Amino acid sequence: MIETSMTNIAENKCHSHSRGSSADLQSVIEHVAHLLPTQGPITSFVHHNTLHAFEELPFEAAVKQAIATFDCQPYFSEERFRELQSSGRIRRQDLRSVLMEDLGVRGDELIGLFGTRFQLRLAMLDHPMRMANSTELRWLVAETSAMREFERNVSSTLREKMVSSTRQWAAL
Fold first, then answer.
1. How far apart are CA 94 and CA 107, in angstroms?
2. Structural domain containing residue 147
3. Is residue 62 domain-resident?
4. How many domains does the chain have?
């Protein structure tokens, strides 16, 4: 509505000037400018801090308390995370940085066959954990190559390590 009014004013002003010079255009702009706000449009406005009741808590604790209190989902779903990761919006280097910061010196701890705690956590972010009940697992083992082949992106070093360890375990 305002846009239409401004267009009408501008058109009327322009039609009243037959020359169409840059001075006329400047005059139209100045005349119409007083109808516009001094700031651009606000696309979103947060008027209320939903965590204000938990201000005394550290941020993560406040979020956890809000989840329990408001029965909400404050973080992306795993599906949304995977979409953002595959689109490049969440970058691997960022995941690595956050993990290193989160794990600190514990990141270098060895975790069984998986390598370090850091490597395991990064692998868990790179590859979705598939959940299944016992019937589904039996089907998966019987009908797919899941127990006979590694995924393509598993390094040859890790493959050899896992095969060797499994052989040792099976020989017991």
1. 16
2. 132-166
3. no
4. 2
Q: Which of 94, 154, 100 is nearest to 123 (CA)?
A: 154
Give the phi and the psi of residue 116 in degrees, each rounded to 5: -85, 165
Calculate the CA dihedral of residues 87, 124, 140, 170 and round it to 10 degrees.
150
Q: Which residue has the tokens 């995941």?
A: 95
Measured CA to CA, the distance from residue 102 to residue 107 in angstroms comes to 8
Tokens of 128: 């979705």
Q: What is the mean pLDDT of residues 14-24?
A: 62
pLDDT bin (cut points 50, 70, 90) of residue 107 is: very high
Report CA-CA distances (Å) from 49 to 25, 28, 46, 58, 72: 45, 43, 7, 15, 15
E strands present in the chain? none
